[in-house]
Amino acid sequence: xSEISTREPLIEGNKxxxxxxxxxxxxxxxxxxxxxxxxxxxxxxxxxxxxxxIVLTIWKGIGLWGxxxxxxxxxxxxxxxxxxxxxxxxxxxxxxxxxxxxxxxTSINRSAEAMTIFAVICAGLFPLIHMGRFLLGFxxxxxxxxxxxxxxFNSPLLWDxxxxxTYFLVSLVFWYVGLIPDLGTIRDRMKTKxxxxxxxxxxxxxxxxxxxxxxxxxVSFTLAGLAxxxxxxxxxxxxxxxxTSVIPGxxxxxxxxxxxxxxxxxxxxxxxxLLIIARKTxxxxxxxxxxxxxxxNKIIILTGSIVGVAYMTELFMAWYxxxxxxxxxxxNRATGPYWxxxxxxxxxxxxxxxxxxxxxxxxxxxxxxxxxxxxNIGMWFERFVIIVTSLHRDYLPSSWEMYKPTLxxxxxxxxxxxIFFTCFxxxxxFFPVIAMAEVKTTIKNK
Amino acid sequence: xKEISGYYDKEASLLSAVKSxxxxxxxxxxxxxPYPVHGLDHAMGLRRSWLxxxxxxxxxxxxxxxxxxxxxxxxRAYPINIGGxxxxxxxxxxxVTFECAxxxxxxxxxxxxxxxxxxxxxADNKIYDERATDDRFVVVLDTADIDxxxxxxxxxxxxxxxxxxxxxxx
Amino acid sequence: MENLNLTFKFSKKxxxxxxxxxxxxxxxxxxxxxxxSPEKIWSAxxxxxxxxxxxxxxxxxxxxxxxxxxxxxxxxxxxxxxxxSMYLPIGAIFMIIMxxxxxHVFHWIHxxxxxxIIANKEAFLNVPFFIARLIIYLSVWISLTYMLRKISKxxxxxxxxxxxxxxxxxxxxxxxxxxxxxxxFAWDWLMSIEAxxxxxxxxxxxxxxxxxxxxxxxxxxxxxxxxxGYMEFITKENIHDLARYLFSFGIFWMYLWFSQFMLxxxxxxxxxxxxxxKRIDDYRFLFFLNLALNFLIPFLVLVIRKFRRVLWxxxxxxxxxxxxxxxxxxxxxxxxxxxxVPTIGFFDIGLTIGFIGIFLWSVLYSLTKANLLSKNHPYLxxxxxxxxx
Lengths: 446, 170, 389
Known about the structure:
The complex is a heterotrimer of chains A (446), B (170) and C (389).
Chain A lengths: L16 H13 L4 H27 L14 H12 L1 H12 L9 H22 L25 H34 L3 H10 L7 H34 L11 H27 L8 H32 L2 H12 L3 H13 L7 H4 L2 H28 L14 H24 L5 H7 L4
Chain B lengths: L2 E6 L2 H13 L4 E5 L7 H5 L6 H27 L12 H27 L20 E6 L5 H13 L4 E5 L1
Antiparallel strand pairs in B: 1-3, 1-4, 2-3
Chain C lengths: L11 H24 L2 H31 L10 H7 L2 H11 L3 H4 L2 H4 L4 H5 L6 H29 L4 H30 L12 H26 L8 H32 L2 H13 L1 H19 L2 H4 L2 H27 L8 H23 L11 H5 L5
Helix pairs in contact in C: 1-16, 2-3, 2-4, 2-9, 2-10, 2-15, 2-16, 3-16, 4-8, 8-9, 9-10, 10-11, 10-15, 11-13, 11-15, 12-13, 13-15
């Protein structure tokens, strides 16, 4: 059979199998550069600030926050939804793109999955702190107790508990199953005894047997099949937190798919932010090529446009439905006291991604990096707009209020950014950032 | 002598070696490779894995127990009227049922995979060549009841198919 | 593959069969006119016009998506969705015929001055704008579909690589326009039947149905061609892939159905719930049948890997989904247009059979117009040599 193919190569540099192993292995044994330590210091101090703020909140209570009557969900739920959204790209890349046979995902799936796990950890922190009594967090799980009462399965907040914990566990398992062979590779190349022992433990005794590989592929594919609907369900259930209520601006049926799309949109932006840094600092330009960045930008246009269409649909339906409260909620968003948040959201999420229709911009790394941050800001404001503008003016004008975060809330948010980047920096230091075995299957000169 | 192993550095020569060994009715114990080799399971005559069935069963158990538990809680154990919803509020039960199904299915298949493959924290499986997880392919034959004459023949088979090295092990 | 030049012959025998189908449709129409109210006849016509038009549209979507994503697996069957998309102009004629019956289907036309809620929507729901929108959708859909088809046909005598790159531009334009227009089309022709009701998700829900039924149609046409002795080169892997699409988009349809239903059920606002109450109380059997045909049956069958690789099982599921989508469409239209609950009889089924006849005629005729295999497509080889895990 003749190979008629006009596809661009997935990785550059005409690598051999050994080159791939070396490229992924060397950063793990090499002494990390100054930049890495600097990054870790900054991220670590941010995390520390966050932890202090969290301890303070638990010690003194939610009163330290700016949330008040009618606006019970301020920054903390905004951040929760934002982080969960970011956590969607990893599983999207490894599950949905695997099912659609998009082979380019192989060089980015590992780090995107790791990012998912860290983002979900950051997300999970917020509801837990928001409970006020942190130590009673286990109350949300249905366990037999002396009061004979169970949890409320009618509540979307409880569905969230199930959805987020399932998502976390399945993503973790999916990620680790993929890591096992690569950890085996590292174990076999590690020279120092102690480190070899650790990687031997982590690699679960992987040998690369044909039977194992066969099962590995079946398991990956089945997990992908399970994770694909799971990814849809998680942000769907997060959107149910809002949409099952009767608050104008929250109760609208388009929320589930539109939240999912927005989640993938922001997730890809975060993946781009991280990978553009990683490819530069870790010399992965041959693996994460401009072609990869362009393809991710195409997904950004797609999901960004879906989000844009959803905004328009909501606006149109607010008018079409003839419900005065709904119409007021939307006019208030665009022209009320929080108009600036609304227009930041619109510019960052709807207008700016359209620039990616130009091939030149799509393939420009600097511009993509800039855009990835713009989009994440935009998506943060989307959640802020949805939560705060709908809550601050409800049916009863006498209880209209304004909301402003306090320093403690800001510190907690900065802290989660710190935790996220600390985890990611430690990950790139000790784990294979590229799914070696999977990349090896895609190269031509074996 | 217990085992003979052949070492290759190319996917193509590995595949042809496996084919020629199988054509000569020589039983292959195992093959080790750094990545899943396309078509190797056919060449070795491996049967399809039953693992997806574990996921299916896990998913079914998860869905039924998840739904059943919620129904039991709301209709038998502690019926409460919540927001005027019926006690048996089927649409409300779907999200948790779905999550339970996925969770059980994923854990069922992964645990069966690890168990069946003898993989797990602290597992100590035999490694023939440390480069088998890098860029080498290893074919291992079980030769416990084979005499030296035949072993020589196998060795030449290996060499014909482009093996870089052949090793005996007791 | 030895010989890549394969042509389809539209034999007399098939033509006779299709003529019989069309005559059944005509007989049903005559029977309907003699027995039923104009509401019912126009509703049934609307059902079939929209149903088959959107199948053609979904086929162009299939072609466009695969051009953009640079996939290779679909190349060996690509001519089938292309041929299906050639039904669009005929579908457009039926939509234009529908314009003469708007009064009988859309109550907002005559209630706009008595009903304050509808009066509020007049800027959008008025006949001239309604017709203008239809003309815009149809003309853009048809011209882009013809462009894509022409590029694909040209590739048989020219350079496949160049054609692919050229088609990508048109495919991207089509995708953008399609995604926007199908949503508004759904508001116009399906949601505004019950002009008081609104749901932001409705357009996307209809879109998911369009995708599912065009996949079903592709599978059914493929099975017909196989039955007639063509397309022998289709591998089990191709069938597996088609089945997987049917399976996963069936789940996606169910997901959107559930999202819409759940949110309306949970919030329990009378302005929204009346839509579902009517359907559950008066059309209970069809309401649940819809879920069984579109989700439960195909899901339980196609979840088994072995069944996804057998053409007749996959085709049977495609037929189930096709009927399911018909029921779904029925539930969108009839509860809104009919005052009393109608029964489904010879008229409804016969009319659809007639439409199937016209549809297949158009598809098979278009198949004769091009090689059965897109032979110069650069990824042709890929669609023969790949394996599913």
